[in-house]
Amino acid sequence: MFRLDKFGRVVGRMSRTRLEAVAAVAAAEQLHLSTSNASNARKSVKTPVGPAGLVVHVPSYVLDPEAFERAVADGTSRVGDIVWPSSVALAELLATGGPRLARLGLDFTDKRVLELGSGLGLAGMSVAMSAAPSSVTLTDHDLEALMLAEQSAKENGLAKVSARPLDWQQPEQWPAATEFDAVLATDVLYHGTEHGPLVAFLQHALLANDAGGSGDKEPFAVFIEPVHHERVTATDGQQFEAVARDAGLVVEVTALPGPRPMQLIRVTA
């Protein structure tokens, strides 16, 4: 079983979960090598992902089991290098459209969306493709992953998508609350030590913006998270919800059934 260390590096042994993550991003016959135009970015592979067939640039080592295991062993693998199943689940959910999305609180129409921990950008690009937002801003502290995400957005013709560096644990990097109407994140609740800073950011983004929000512009945050052993039973597995509620935020959790069970966590002021 592999896991993430406190630096966001993948550690442990290759597992079925890892293979499922790889399967989520690749159809081998459709892969072809390309090189990022950013000189310090890793060699990448681009492939269509999700029901909309969005092109996503993925570091090529991730799709090579032997290369991936070597990267895990030497500590050079990073969480932002992988398209995680939760972002694929969001893409599939958004592609269904219809009233179910409104019932789940996933109406991004005309919203200015800020994605946290975008990694390779599938979740944010899926919102831009399928959910009619006003704009989508991809953010991450991993600059190489962010450059690949920005390149993917351009190749998909998503003019509404932009990218900017952001570490939510650094308040000096936070954008003004009034810049965005919705916060999006997928598969980011894996370190309990990060829940406090994340909730502090949400207080900034939601509570500070709530006075100006009304009706369909009321600010909200949405997280899509996998339901796995650690999430359900670990000491900090569900700490995020408790920390958010203690901070005065409203948290709603909805099960998303499917081949990989997921939770939709919606947070409002």
Tell me what you see in this structure:
- By secondary structure, the protein is of the alpha/beta class.
- Helices cover 33% and strands 24% of the residues.
- The chain has 2 domains: 2-78, no CATH class; 87-268, Vaccinia Virus protein VP39 (Rossmann fold), CATH 3.40.50.
- It is built from 9 helices and 12 strands.
- The chain has a 7-stranded mixed beta sheet, with helices on both faces. Strands 3-4-5 form a 3-stranded antiparallel beta sheet. The chain has a two-stranded antiparallel sheet with strand order 1-2.
- The protein is globular and about 45 Å long.
- This is Methyltransferase domain-containing protein.
- List unreliable stretches of 5+ residues: 1-41
CATH topology name of the largest domain:
Rossmann fold
* Rg for CA atoms: 17 Å
In whole angstroms, how far apart are the ends?
Answer: 37 Å
CATH class of the largest domain: Alpha Beta
Number of helices: 9
